Amino acid sequence: MTIFGPVIDVRPLFPRERRALLDLLGGLAPEDWSRPTVCPGWDVHDVVAHVLNDYMRRLSGSRDGYGGAVFAGDETLPAYLARVNGQFAEALRQISPHVMIDLLGHLGGQLDDLWAARDLGGPADLDVSWAATDVGSPAWLDIGREYTEFWVHQQQVRDAVSAPGAGDPALMGPVLDVFARALPYTLRSEERPEGTTVTLEVTGPAGGRWSATRREGRWRMSPAGPEPAARVLMGQDTFWRLATRGVTPEQARERADMTGDPALAAAVTTLLAIVA
């Protein structure tokens, strides 16, 4: 087992998640596309354009080997992503919802084929920076990250139009599982004795329990121990929103039950599973 924990294979879930998204988008009224979302400055149309950008970017880069946009000067990764994502969303404001829905349906199957051809244990096409910056990511974590991206943006659209969420545990559970793999990186600044364990427990039908243990000078995903040094308990809705900064660490702490080492517990509530 690597520092990231056991393999998660989310590949069978992409068609189901996409079907739920397309059904949602197909039922929106014209005015729904201009409703604001939690993403600053973006409405529903912009978020859907961003999902389409993700489809096209992964097919272009991972399948076709096309480099695409490049960093500008000393631009950081978050700044680069904010710039190119914003440029794409702005450009697609001239494209109709109907065309975007058609493109998502057309390209989605191609993306499924791309994932199906991947060796889950091989190296990632794109490392997952929120899980580690000094160790290469496995392909399964890269693919899992993409699944969480699509699921979260669907939820943001649902929130914006007050549509029931895609909270089916079969779809949501793997999102929480992938997000939890950020635990070791989240705790990286907290030095503790060998064998110290921290446990995160997420309640709800899609929830679960995850632990990270200090081994060989770093935190690693590990089986849950009977007596963790710190334990954080929070609901599934709070956890996914925390991981994507739909709620702040301070808000998450207000909603969580934290016991044990205060610094370790507080560190858990800073978990971030997006590039920001």
Defining key terms:
single chain; 10 helices; isomerase; 5 strands; alpha+beta; Four Helix Bundle (Hemerythrin (Met), subunit A); five-stranded mixed sheet; 2 domains; MDMPI_metal-binding; Nonspecific Lipid-transfer Protein, Chain A; Maleylpyruvate isomerase family mycothiol-dependent enzyme; 276 residues
Describe the structure.
There is one protein chain. This protein has 276 residues and is α+β, with helices and mostly antiparallel strands. It has two domains: 11-166, dinb family like domain (Four Helix Bundle (Hemerythrin (Met), subunit A)); 183-268, SCP2 sterol-binding domain (Nonspecific Lipid-transfer Protein, Chain A, 2-Layer Sandwich), CATH 3.30.1050.10. Helix content is 47%, strand content 11%. It has ten helices and five strands. The protein has a five-stranded mixed β-sheet with strand order 3-2-1-4-5. A hairpin with a 4-residue loop joins strand 1 and strand 2. The chain is globular. It starts with 13 loop residues before the first helix and ends in an 8-residue tail after the last helix. The model has no long low-confidence stretch (mean pLDDT 95). Keywords: Isomerase, Pyruvate. It comes from Nonomuraea diastatica. Residues 16-157 form the Mycothiol-dependent maleylpyruvate isomerase metal-binding domain. GO terms for molecular function: isomerase activity; metal ion binding. Residues 192-228 are annotated as: Disordered.
